[in-house]
């Protein structure tokens, strides 16, 4: 039997936890529902994306998003944020300053990647920077459910945030990885990547979730810890970093 999430085009990952692979750039959007709060992990590439996500989540849960967690500062993960008016926005320390300084570059990157120029300009103009800055780890309460935000970077960017959903009733932990992990292709190391530090970020990610967790990449299918270990070793070899001890 399909759940309400699956009928809405999402993949159910656990009790009150789901994700969607967005059309276009295949970026993952996550949702975590508690009794008093709802967190979305990343917000899509445009305000239209964000608005559609907001409506879908409200349609399934009957409640609005209350918290946004931004995994890193790339256009396909942050430009929909302004569609979630009045919510609490979380990001790795330094992300807010980067987004405020880098709006023009974010807009240009979105257009280079195929976003309509007017849509990119509108989203960049209205972009919401994080209200809460995660330096190490921060617990967010969504009622009976606690979600752990962890600044595990730098790696894919200088501001990589992971989101850990603790398991319940024997179910495994779920870790939203952002683009520190990619399954649908080789991890993308753009000009803002810190490749020498990326393997260490994956070590911290694995320590956060453990060997039995479900890992949700920023792009691609859900993976396990063995996949993350293999990607860590491949990145270390690619960038000349010492193997894990």
From TrEMBL:
GO terms for molecular function: hydrolase activity. SMART domains: Lactamase_B. This is MBL fold hydrolase. Residues 26-219 form the Metallo-beta-lactamase domain. It comes from Streptomyces kronopolitis. Keywords: Hydrolase. The keyword Hydrolase applies. PANTHER family: ACYL-COENZYME A THIOESTERASE MBLAC2 (PTHR42951:SF4), METALLO-BETA-LACTAMASE DOMAIN-CONTAINING (PTHR42951). The lineage of its organism: Bacteria, Bacillati, Actinomycetota, Actinomycetes, Kitasatosporales.
